[in-house]
Structure formats: structure tokens, C-alpha cells
Specification:
Elements lengths: L1 H14 L39 E7 L2 E7 L1 H5 L7 H13 L6 H8 L5 H24 L9 H4 L11 H13 L3 H9 L1 H4 L5 H10 L3 H13 L6 H13 L3 H13 L16 H15 L5 H4 L2
Antiparallel strand pairs: 1-2
Helix pairs in contact: 3-5, 7-8, 7-10, 8-10, 8-11, 10-11, 10-12, 12-13
Length: 301
Amino acid sequence: MWSAFGILRGARRACGWSPAGSARHFRAPAAYAAAPDAGSAGGASPGETARIPSTVVRGTYAGVNVAYTVTHGDDQRGYPGMTVAEMCAALEKRYEAKLPPAERHIHQLIDKVATPEDARAAARAVARFRAERAFLAAGDEAWGVTNDVEKTGETKQKRHGLRSKSLLMFAEKCVAAGDVATAVDALEKRHVFGFEASRRACERVLEACQTSEQVFRTYAAFREEGFEVDGAIATATVAAAARAGDAAAAERWMETFAAAGVPAEKPSGIELEEPAREQEEVADAGEAEESEPISTEEKAP
């Protein structure tokens, strides 16, 4: 028995146990001991570099907060100070190097849009980003589109598009740059660009429409997404058509919404033509008065 206690005591001493207290103290072997600081930042070893946190850039687009990050690597590559053309060239180099850009790079590019030329260049870059990411997702198992049920029991999938706020951000920058047509194209062809439409993005594009054709295309995209058609969107559609200078189209929109049980309010400060039904009723009433027969009393002298 005493030999057993001796073995137990020896094992405790080897583990660093001291009879002076109840706490257990373990001494790490020399191989696992922490290396000396040697003046490195953050206690890192001389061969390591401390990780520099990313910068979060926040902006408000059509009343919605949108944020994206700029990493230390992006800063070292000079992305924040580039123009749209320079950023597009930098993204092209990433494709050539088989290092596709991330979503934050597209947000950095969109945030640089200041002219219609910038908007169109950014639109091409966004479409390229979506196509390249989709190609990688379809052809590279590392992107997780292939079925890994045998390995993990799940089918991993990675998103290769952009979030809904990205479209709102792009539309707002296009409108500010004076290129509403590109914003409408991005909404209408959102599947090509990889955008996810949101109700607020549709409303923002509708507010900026300059022609009745753009109003129709924007409303069509709104309906395709399955958003609810209420009085607010009906009034906004009528107001957009009237603001574009097409009063007849605005009247037709009002009649369409009224027939669907969604009455739209008449835009304030905008004169609209009389509805077609009222014009027909007035014309019919006038014809009826003209064709009314004259009584015998009126014929008598």
C-alpha cells in the first residue's frame, strides 16, 4: 500500500503538484513554453506579424445603412485611392491571377461611381464578378456546389451573387451620377448582374424614372419579385409617370390600379387629364341632348 502512495506522490510531483495548497499547478514543457516577446507588437514572435483590423466604411443610401470593409491588404494595394477605371483594371489583374475579388471589392468599386461613364464601367465589372464567381462555383469543388453528402452529410453551397443592399447602393450612386438608365437596367437585369432586388431598391429606382417606359420596366420588375402592391407603390407609380411628363400614362395607371382595387392618390401639384371614362360619358351626354326630339308645344307658334 505504501508503495502505491509513493507512486502517486511521485506522479503528482511530476505534474507540478505542491502540498502547500489545494490548487493544481501544471508546468508546460520547454517545447510549449511561450517564446520571449523580443519587442514584437502584441506579444507576437519575431517571425510573425500582428493582424491589422479592417476598416468598416458605412454609408446611407436612400435612407438605408450600407457597410463594407476595407482590409489592410486592400489599403496596401491602393484600392481606396483608385478611380473606377483603375479599380476595374485591378480587378482584372485579380482574375488573371486566379484570385477573384470578394464582395467588398465590388462595394468599394460602386462607392467610387461619380459619372455616367463610371456607372457603366461599374455595371460591367459587377456582371463580370457574378459570371466569374458562378463559373468557379460550378467548376471548383472548393466553392462547395458539389454534393458532399458522402463526406459531411450536407450539401454545401456558397453564395456567388451580391446582397440586396448592393443593388440599392448601386442604384443610388447611378442616380446621383445622372445615369438613371443604368439603374433601371441593373434592376431589370438583376439576375445577370447578380443583384438581389429589394422593395426599397425598386421604390428608389421608381422615384428617379425619367420616362414612362422606365416606369413600366421598374414596375414590371417589382411585380416579378412578388412584392405586395399597395396604395404607396400605386401612388408612386402614378407620380413617376406624371413626373416624366406623360399625363395620359399616369391616368391609365390610375385606372389600372383602381380596377385592381388598389386606388392611387392623385399626385399633388401635377395636372392630369380627365379620365377616359369621364370623357366618354360627357360625349355621350352631349350627343343625347342633340338627338332629343322637339316637342309639339315648341313647334307651335
